[in-house]
Each structure stands twice: as C-alpha cells, then as structure tokens.
Design a protein that fits this description.
single chain; alpha/beta; Nucleotidyltransferase, domain 5; DHBP synthase; 3 domains; nine-stranded mixed β-sheet; five-stranded mixed β-sheet; 21 helices
C-alpha cells in the first residue's frame, strides 16, 4: 500500500512516501526550487518520492494532508473578528489565497496530483506527534509537540502506545511558545521562521537581564508549564509584524534593523528569551511526566529544534530517554501524516523493534550515481580525479588535516534542516581560525554563528559531556572538561562578540563561547562512509571530531544536485569538492 503525505502552504513544504509502513522517500520542496523555506505545493518533492518508489499518482492508495484547513480558516476568521477593525490589511492579504486554494484542499490535492482516491486529514499537531512517536524506538511513550501554531493548538502532549496516539491536552493560539521565540527573533533583527537558530546561537554572548521582565510583563507562566502571553505587547494576531510599540518601550527602543550592528541589548534579549524558553519546556516536561508516568518522551514541532533546551531535558530528566524527530518543523508533518494514515487511520500493527530503522538516519532524499556525477563533470569541462573508496577517504582526511575546507556530497540527501554528512562542508575542528574562515569566506554569514561537530559515536564521551546517540544534531552539551583550555584572567572579562577571540578548547572551531557544542554522533551502522572518513582523520591526527556545516551559503537551501554543489563550491572559498568518487580541487580551476 502506497501512502503519500504532504505538508504545504505555510513554510517548509514537503512530501513523503510510505509503503506498507516503511518510509521510502521524503524531501523538502526548497531543495529542488532553491527557494529557502519554500511554502508552495511540493510538486518537485512529490515527483521525487513517486519516482523513488517506482509508482505514479494513479498507484497511490491514500494521500494525507498534515493539517485541517477548515479549522485553520476558523482560527483566522475568529482572530480577525476579535481584533477588528485592526488587522484589515493582514486579513485582506491572507483571505484571497485561503479562499481560492487552501480551504478546498481535497480538490486542490487531487487536481495537482492527478489522483482520484481518498484524502486523509490529520490535525497539525497529530502529524507532529505521529512523526515523533512512530519512528522512535519506544513501544510506548509520552509525546510533547511545540511550535508556532497549527490550526488552534500551539503545544500538545499525550501518550502513544502501539499504533495509538492519545492527545490529552493543548495550549491554544494566540498563546504560543514558538511565536514568543519568533517575536524575539523578529525584534532582534532576524527573519521569522528561519532566524530562530541565530537567536539561539547569539544567546551565550549575552546576560539574562530581561528574564524577570519577561516573566513579570510578557509571559504568565504556571508551574505545570502552561502559560498565557500578554497580548498587548504583540502584533501577530492582527498586524504584519510580530511586536508593537509597547514591546519597543518595554525593551528600550525599536527593533534592530536587519544586517545592522548587533548590540549588547540584542545579546541580552537572546539570552533571556532562551532561558525563559528552557524554563517553560522544563516545566512542561516535568508536568507531562507527572501526568503520564511514562519512561520515555518523544518531541516534535519547530520548538523541538532548540538543541540547547533538548540537551537540558535529556540531562535533567525526569524521562529516561528522549527521541526527537529530525524533521521536527512543518516539513516533518508530511512524514507524520503518512505514518499516521498507515498506523492510526488504517489500524496497522506497529513493532517498535522495526521502528528503530524507520527514519533511516534521515537519509531520505535524492541520491546521484557516479555515472550521473561524472556526466555532469564532463559536460562542464571540470577537472577531476576519480578514486577508489579507501584512497578517497585517505585523501579527504589529509585535506581536512591540512586545514582545507571540503565540500562533501555523498549518498541520499538529508530530510530536515540539518546536514548530517551527506550534503556537508567539512573542516578541521582543531583550528582556532576555522570558525571565522567558514563564517566569513564560505557561508557568508554572521561571525557569531557557531559550528557543529561530527564525532565518532564510540568516542563522544571523550570530547563531550554526553553519553547518548545524537545522530540528528539536535542535542547541545558541554565540551568535556578534559578538552578545555585554561583561559587567561584578562580574557575572562571580555564581553559580547569579543569573546569569540578566546581559544577555549582543543576543538575550538566547534566550541561555542559557553563551552558547549551542538553534537552529531556518527555511527558505522547509520553512516558507514562518513564514519570511516572521520576514522581516517582520527588515524592521522588522533582527533575524532571534525566540523560539519550544511553545504550551502547564507540564504540558500542545502544543495541537492551535483550542479547545485558545484555552483556553491565555485562561488565560495572552499578548497576542494568531493562528489561520489570524484575529487575536484579549486586550485586546478
């Protein structure tokens, strides 16, 4: 039985094909169109999934959509009525497309797909919950989903067991942890729905000066993690901005304009809202544990991409183990609704032992054979060298050890926002200059942005205070004390971005200013080629850690095709590009 799941029309549109309970393929539309966070109908992603599965739309048994359009329409109309006459501009902007396309989703899906069968609709947060639990290794678990907003819900929790998902409680719009974080993202001058990572990365540079102000004025937080936002400070219900002038006055002036200087105020605001977010999530998690008495927790929704909070949840408990959907945002809704349809709607039995491999390490997107890659290289007169596997790994390990920056293009494209060793830019974590070089010369992005380490799973405790799988780069943990360097007294008083100058550890390129790192553990089972590359680097250097950042430049999605990779390589200061069995050196072009 072939089931196609689709998420679309807000941001990060995606498609997923599930056959008899197995995820055959999943991909985000942005990777094909090259429009970051593309919200449009995921036609290219659908075409890829069907092609990968060897089926046409006529072969599909069911199509699932990740939310309920009529409920979303109800929320939009009721919100506009509640705030009328304010919000007329926003209302007029949203309604035409809603009435033309989004409201009549069943007809639209059938027309766009050329499909005549049944369409299944789940609620937005049911899709998130399904994406969190069904691929997890747990027979039963509690789940917690948190994001901006679905139809009405902004956070939910419940219990999943077997093929059942029992949603037990919700927080409703406009009270939203995701929108609170996005409001601070907007106010500090970053783009909503994409700049939240920047806010998290900026937080360690600041002080939590505004925590009390946020909790006194902006968020009414209860012991169980439920909360209400003081809506007099926000504009997202009726306007075209996230915050208003009252918010400006509360925090000492207007929002920072994008691409202007980041001041201590923005750093302190980032640190403060991150701390508040962690407190809300921690309270939610404790409450869910008290109410469910489950041993395990599954997380999804855009807020579950906050690796700092995730790391704290794992370290502090009370759950014994946590599993997080790597495509935790809206893209993961396509995967969630497809699995929900198979397990919950159709009532198929779920086996937790086989579910362990359901996510397939999130390598679910397109791959390209050596023949395809070589044909592209020849057609474009690219000078290249073809190497056998072991020779290739030795060459790349040598390049990284020589402080070269390597574009790494192998196997299936990752599903979700993180590059996991398939479409990655790799570098030497031991280099004190590498963080600056990568940000300014390769990624063309803000200098404060940290980089993530890929570490051999068997060596993770040697370098980090973590003894847990983190294959999806969703856990932040401290660097092991034995790898930290003594910091000079004069350096301890540095503040703001000046703290970047301090060499803090033996792996400075991946050590953030608070001595933490967002870790990817690499196992030989899930990522054999990438694991063997890091192992080859270890044999040369004694170090089991390399820098792994996504293969793209600022403002662009992760590369998908050989053409994307080559274009990105030639437009940056990367030294080498490795695609399949082929090595391309910049100095030979």
């Amino acid at each position: 039985m072939n089931i196609l799941g689709i998420s679309a029309f807000y941001h990060d549109s995606a498609a997923c094909l599930v056959r008899d309970g197995e995820i055959v393929a999943a991909a985000q539309e942005e990777r094909f169109t090259r429009k970051k966070h593309d919200p449009s109908f995921p036609q290219n992603a659908v075409d890829y999934c069907l092609r990968e599965g060897g089926v046409s739309a006529a072969d599909l048994d069911l199509v699932g959509f990740y939310e309920k359009p009529f409920l979303k329409f109800e929320r939009l109309v009721q919100t506009y009525v509640a705030y009328a006459p304010r919000g007329m501009r926003s209302f007029l902007k949203a309604m035409p497309r809603m009435l033309k396309e989004k409201l009549f989703m069943r007809d639209l899906l059938k027309k766009r797909l050329g499909y005549a069968g049944e369409v299944v609709f789940t609620s937005h947060h049911e899709s998130h919950a399904a994406s969190a639990f069904y691929p997890s290794p747990f027979t039963e678990a509690a789940f917690l989903t948190m994001d901006g907003v679905g139809e009405w819900a902004t956070a939910t929790w419940g219990v999943a067991k077997g093929n059942e998902i029992d949603l037990r409680a919700e927080i409703h719009f406009p009270h939203s942890l995701g929108l609170l974080y996005s409001a601070f993202t907007y106010f500090t001058g970053f783009k909503v729905n994409s700049g939240e990572y920047k806010l998290m990365g900026l937080a360690p540079y600041g002080e939590p000066k505004y925590v009390d102000l946020i909790l006194d004025e902006v968020v009414d937080l209860k012991e169980d993690g439920s909360f209400r936002l003081n809506m007099k400070y926000f504009n997202y219900c009726a306007g075209l901005t996230m915050t208003n002038r009252r918010f400006d006055r509360l925090f000492g002036g207007p929002p920072r304009k994008p691409d202007t200087e980041i001041t201590p105020r923005e750093m302190d605001m980032a640190r403060s809202v991150q701390k508040v977010t962690e407190e809300i999530i921690t309270r939610m998690v404790r409450h869910v544990h008290r109410m469910t008495r489950q041993r395990y927790l599954c997380l999804a929704g855009g807020v579950a991409l906050n690796g700092v909070a995730n790391g704290k949840v794992l370290r502090e408990g009370p759950f014994e183990d946590v599993w997080i959907q790597p495509g935790a945002g809206d893209a993961g809704g396509a995967l969630g609704v497809a699995l929900f349809t198979w397990y919950r709607y159709l009532g198929n039995e779920r086996n937790a032992e086989t579910a362990v491999n359901l996510q397939k390490a999130s390598y679910l997107g397109p791959s390209f054979s050596d023949e395809t890659i070589e044909a592209f290289l020849r057609a474009n007169d690219v000078v290249y060298e073809r190497l056998e596997r072991e020779e290739l790994l030795d060459r790349v390990a040598d390049l990284i050890a020589q402080q070269k920056v390597v574009g790494w293009f192998q196997g299936k494209l990752e599903f979700g926002p993180r590059a996991l060793g398939s479409r990655s830019i790799l570098a030497d974590a031991r280099s004190a200059q590498m963080q600056s070089v990568l940000n300014l010369k390769i990624k063309f992005r803000e200098s404060f942005r940290p980089f993530a380490p890929s570490v051999l799973r068997e060596d993770v405790q040697e370098y980090f205070e973590l003894d847990h799988d983190s294959p999806y780069m969703l856990l932040v943990a401290p660097v092991a004390s034995g790898k930290l360097l003594a910091v000079e007294p004069t350096e301890k008083i540095l503040s703001g971005l000046d703290r970047l100058k301090v060499n803090r550890s033996e792996i400075p390129a991946v050590t953030h200013v608070d001595n933490s790192a967002r870790i990817q553990t690499v196992s030989s089972k899930d990522s054999p080629l990438y694991h063997d590359l890091i192992d080859a680097f270890k044999r040369r250097t004694g170090c089991s850690v390399i820098v792994n950042t996504s293969f793209n430049v600022r403002g662009e999605p992760i590369v998908c095709t050989p053409e994307d990779a080559y274009r990105c390589f030639m437009s940056t200061s990367m030294d080498s590009l490795v695609m399949g069995s082929f090595v391309i050196e910049k100095d030979k072009h």
